[in-house]
Amino acid sequence: MLDERWVFHKDVEGTQAGPGVVRRVLAYSKDLMCVENTFEEGAVGSLHHHPHTQITYVVSGEYEFNIDGEKKIVKAGDTMLKMNGVEHGCVCLKAGILLDIFNPMREDFV
């Protein structure tokens, strides 16, 4: 979907990103990427880091996030900024959806 102006959710097949996590790569360019992650309750986004700045918007659900060793509970409407190289991960406390924006795009996701 690189540089596609219109990306319709119904046309994007999800991929398993981990146990209980489905990833959908939505619109993106070389400089920016939008990714939807659907979490089942109890699913874990394991601690990791990458050379991309990332903003996560909580669409729904409840999560315990660990960003650079600091843990907080987040819910719908909350956002988190993760600068490139910062270790982060989460545990899903109530099933829901996270929307991630990356700069630059995550080439490993396509």
Task: Describe the protein in words.
This protein has 110 residues and is mainly β. The protein contains no helices and eight strands. The N and C termini lie close together (9 Å).
Strand content: over 45%
The number of helical segments is: 0
* N-end to C-end Cα span: 9 Å
Q: How many strands in all? A: 8
Dominant shape:
globular
Topology of helices and strands:
Blueprint lengths: L14 E4 L2 E8 L4 E7 L4 E5 L4 E15 L2 E6 L3 E4 L5 E16 L7
Antiparallel strand pairs: 1-2, 2-3, 3-8, 4-8, 5-6, 5-7, 5-8
Keywords:
0% helix, mainly beta, 8-stranded antiparallel β-sheet, 110 residues, 59% strand
Briefly summarize what is shown.
With 110 residues, the protein is mostly beta strands. It has strands at residues 15-18, 21-28, 33-39, 44-48, 53-67, 70-75, 79-82, 88-103.
